[in-house]
């Protein structure tokens, strides 16, 4: 038995409207995408626009120009060793492959600079340049750099070269991971999309309250009360 019909049907109407808007959100009416896909792409673009740290990493790397490293990297496979060898050779390092093991000796600053050049290309969605340079996909190039730098980080720490290890870790996080994760996304500044961003945040708050009040009115109209 409905205790308060006006309140119940107000809540019911709000719930029907909530569901109708939800259906529209999941329709491909936002430039060919549904609402969630459109906003996800927008926020990813804005995020990429504010996550370009490569110039800062280059500046930090200037302190390591001329510092040599001599490391043996236990690669996960023969293929990984062969592919990663090309990266270090392009950076002017001396490389020797022994099965799955890769021995690298060279200028750390120059190695990092070459790595940053590749990361910069991928951040700009230019995979073709790396494909031509190394003979395999740009994403695999960045992944191989990241994997090799993980091993370098471990080896440098084992040799008590902690400053060098910290620099290598910085390249991993601020350059390689960003370039890999944001590949294919167009970078945008939030200023150019401030209206849409503001509207989406306001809509999220209003839509959440809309649902909450619809449920509350329906239950209270039905006669259910929250007692203390």
Please tell me about this protein's structure.
- The protein has 228 residues and is mostly helical.
- It starts with a helix and ends in a 6-residue tail after the last helix.
- Strand 2 and strand 3 (101-107) form a beta hairpin.
- It contains nine helices and three strands, in the order H-H-H-E-H-E-E-H-H-H-H-H.
- It has helices at 5-25, 35-49, 54-61, 78-90, 108-123, 127-134, 138-158, 162-181, 194-222, and strands at residues 68-74, 94-98, 101-107.
- The radius of gyration is 27 Å and the shape is elongated.
Integer count of domains? 2
Computed structural class:
mainly alpha
**Major sheet: size, sense and barrel closure?**
3 strands, antiparallel
- Total number of helices: 9
- Beta strands, count: 3
Rg to the nearest angstrom? 27 Å
Shape: elongated
Binned strand content: 5-15%
Helix fraction, binned, reads 55-70%
Instruction: Give helix and strand order, one letter per element, not per position.
Output: HHHEHEEHHHHH
Low-confidence stretches: none
If you average the pLDDT, what whole number results?
A: 92
State the distance separating the first and last CA atoms.
23 Å
Largest beta sheet: strand ordering: 1-3-2
């Amino acid at each position: 038995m409905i205790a308060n019909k006006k309140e119940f049907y107000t809540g019911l109407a709000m719930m029907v409207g909530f569901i109708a808007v939800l259906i529209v959100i999941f329709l491909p009416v936002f430039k060919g995408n549904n609402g969630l896909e459109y906003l996800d792409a927008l926020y990813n673009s804005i995020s990429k626009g504010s996550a370009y740290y490569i110039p800062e990493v280059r500046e930090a790397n200037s302190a390591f120009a001329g510092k040599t490293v001599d490391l043996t990297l236990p690669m996960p496979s023969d293929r990984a060793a062969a592919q990663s060898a090309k990266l270090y050779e392009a950076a002017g390092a001396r490389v020797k492959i022994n099965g799955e093991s890769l021995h690298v000796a060279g200028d750390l600053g120059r190695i990092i600079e070459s790595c940053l050049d590749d990361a910069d290309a991928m951040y700009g969605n230019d995979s073709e340049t790396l494909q031509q340079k190394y003979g395999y996909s740009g994403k695999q190039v960045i992944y191989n750099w990241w994997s090799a730098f993980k091993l370098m980080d471990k080896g440098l720490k084992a040799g008590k070269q902690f400053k060098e290890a910290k620099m290598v870790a910085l390249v991993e996080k601020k350059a390689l991971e960003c370039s890999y994760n944001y590949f294919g996304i167009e970078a945008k500044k939030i200023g150019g999309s401030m209206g849409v961003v503001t509207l989406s945040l306001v809509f999220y708050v209003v839509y959440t309250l809309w649902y909450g009040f619809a449920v509350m009115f329906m239950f209270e109209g039905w006669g259910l009360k929250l007692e203390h």
